[in-house]
Structures are given as C-alpha cells and as structure tokens.
Amino acid sequence: MNLLDCIQYAFPDARPGVDFTLIDRLDRNGPQIATWDYAGAPEPSTAQLQEVAEDAAREAIARDVRFDRDNLLAADDWLVQRHRDQVDAGSPTALTAPQYADLLRYRQALRDMPTQSGFPSNVDWPSRPI
Hints:
With 130 residues, this protein is mainly α. The chain folds into two domains: 3-36, no CATH class; 59-115. The chain contains three helices and two strands. The protein has helices spanning 3-10, 46-89, 97-111, and strands spanning 20-24, 31-36. Strands 1-2 form a two-stranded antiparallel sheet. The radius of gyration is 24 Å and the shape is elongated. The two termini are 40 Å apart. The mean pLDDT is 93.
C-alpha cells in the first residue's frame, strides 16, 4: 500500500493537496508527507502509517477469505433448499438425515471461520462432507 493510500485509508476525510501534500524526493526513502494541515488528527508517524498498511492488508485478506467462504456456502444452497422442499412435500429425500446433518455442520463451520484464532491469514477450511 503506498503512502497516499495509507493516509486516505486512515483519514478518509483528508483531502490530498488541501489537508496534506506529499513529496517524493530522490535523496529520501520514497514519498514523505510534505505538509499536514488536516484538522481531524495530528500528522501520523511512519510507524502509525506502517500499522495502517498492515491493518489494511489484514482486512484485504479477510475480505478474500470471506468471499471464498461465501462462494462455498452459495454452492450448496441448492442442496439445502432441495432437501427442505422434499421434506416439506413429504417426498423421499436425496440426502439421508446423517448426510444432511453433516452438510449443516459443514456450513456452520464455514460461517464460524472468522472466529478461528488464526483468521484471516491462517484458517482451517472445513472439508465438504458430500
């Protein structure tokens, strides 16, 4: 994440060129804050901006994991719906009661992934039972 993105992530109301300006000098290590006139907060330190970049990266990973998890849930929605329809209609079900229970436990494990201690960078993906 570049410096401008970090600042805009941490201070969404701060306007580049108005509340702050950046300068990229060849004799320095990349872009620097040249001026800081944002009334909403004091000028952030390099360490604070590094923390912002790390938080944003974690959020991006979490968003990707949730996206994949949501796709796995959506892929089995039809199985759940079909089973419920068959039960409601009094028809024989394609899934046995234990298979359906396993499917429901799998889906719950997917929903519970954000509560895992390693989330989002180190998660245990449940195995699809069917």
